[in-house]
Amino acid sequence: MSVAEAGVTLADPTAYADEDRLHRALDLLRREAPVHWVMPPGYHPFWAVTRHADVREVERRSDVFLSGPRPMLAPARTVASGTGGGRKGLLRPLAHLDGAEHHVMRAVTASRFTPQAVAALRPQIRDLARGAVDRMAGRQGEVCEFVGEVADVYALGVLLLLLGLDDSEAATVGRFTPAARRSMAPEQRTATMREFYTYFLALTADRRARPRDDLASVIANARVDGQLLDDHEVLSQFVILLMAGHDTASVTVAGGLLALTEHPGQLSALRDGAARLPDAVEEMIRWVTPVKAIMRTARVDHALHGVRIRAGEAVLLSYPSANRDESVFPDPHRFDVHRTSNRQLAFGYGVHHCLGASLARLEIEEFFAALLPRLVSATVAGPPVQLTTTFSGGLKLFPVRCVLKN
């Protein structure tokens, strides 16, 4: 594989479903061209940034590298022109915003994601985790499609808890998650997004009329410059909850269990107490890296790793590459639950660091805290399948046969 071929790999969604191929390309780029100009067919060109230190530098310099107008890698035919219309216009989640606008919109829900606020949710999330493991035990020895039957359902339960919705809403809200929409035909996805708008605007109206102590009420009643959020701003808040609040935990729980089944010595170390669960959670997050890449655009000329990036040029930040950087992680292609001082960048860095990072860690930790003491054995029961993507992904299918203690 040449450096040019390695660069083009980053714009190939199928590469993210073939981790050996992906990491061969990323290893080569880190070694020979850590800031590399890529001109993939069907895409606007970009700089591929693959080393941990350089990804951090771009994230840290939010005054130089902007989220708009190209926050994620997409084919040239689908890339919208312009930077958006301020507070009005299309849906623009937090990851798409910059500067003061980002700060203001992040503040809308920030109080619900502080470490203290998240810690207060631990008893309820623990109950949800135990319920998920109980359902697994009910399938004793049977093949379970773990992603759809366990991980997605568990993450959805936490999302409903945050929003103040009961289990009767699970089927409806579940259809709006990225995991559900990926399996839909394009026309179904369009219809589902219309349903999403209708559902969450109705929820907003209800919470404005009858506010409660839940995140839906916080969003519905938030004010900026004395005004309630408009429909686009409200829906943008709910979009990011569905994207980051559901998928991050779901794919990491699934990918974490797969890693443990493929590395039985690591599983034994966790079960017998030789390794700490919080360290293992960080390693699962590093190993899976749910967000694969984001884009930034240079506002002014800037030198990065000796390369001149000019104003208006785009950069792609490769998180799977940063999280396997051998200069930061000894033996980076080894899944190691004993790894400490884990400087993984899966949640980003700087002003765009994931608002829900503490919650995601708690969800993952509580699930495995419930599972591991009861897990007798876990056997992969068919080929795991990874999602094709250039943005966010992980396991799509994971057939597993588990035996648990009652």
Task: Give a brief rundown of this model.
With 406 residues, the protein is of the alpha+beta class. The protein contains 16 helices and 14 strands.
Give the helices and strands, then pairings:
Blueprint: H1 3-9, H2 19-32, E1 35-38, E2 46-49, H3 52-60, E3 65-66, H4 99-109, H5 115-119, H6 122-137, E4 143-145, H7 146-163, H8 170-174, H9 178-181, H10 186-209, H11 215-221, E5 223-224, E6 227-228, H12 231-262, H13 264-271, H14 277-288, E7 293-298, E8 302-304, E9 307-309, E10 314-318, H15 319-322, H16 357-371, E11 375-380, E12 385-386, E13 395-397, E14 399-404
Parallel strand pairs: 2-10
Antiparallel strand pairs: 1-2, 3-7, 4-14, 5-6, 7-10, 8-9, 11-14, 12-13
Helix pairs in contact: 1-2, 6-7, 6-16, 7-12, 10-11, 10-12, 12-14, 12-16, 14-16
Overview of the structural elements:
By secondary structure, the chain is of the alpha+beta class. It has 16 helices and 14 strands. The strands form five sheets. The chain has a five-stranded mixed beta sheet, with helices on both faces. The protein has a three-stranded antiparallel beta sheet with strand order 4-14-11. A hairpin with a 2-residue loop joins strand 8 and strand 9. The longest helix has 32 residues, at 231-262. The N and C termini lie far apart (50 Å).
Give the biggest beta sheet: 5 strands, mixed
Strand order of the largest sheet: 1-2-10-7-3
CA-based gyration radius: 21 Å
Approximate helicity band: 40-55%
**Apparent shape:** globular
Q: What is the SS-derived class?
A: alpha+beta
Quantity of strands, as a count: 14
Spans of 5+ residues with little confidence (pLDDT < 50)?
81-89
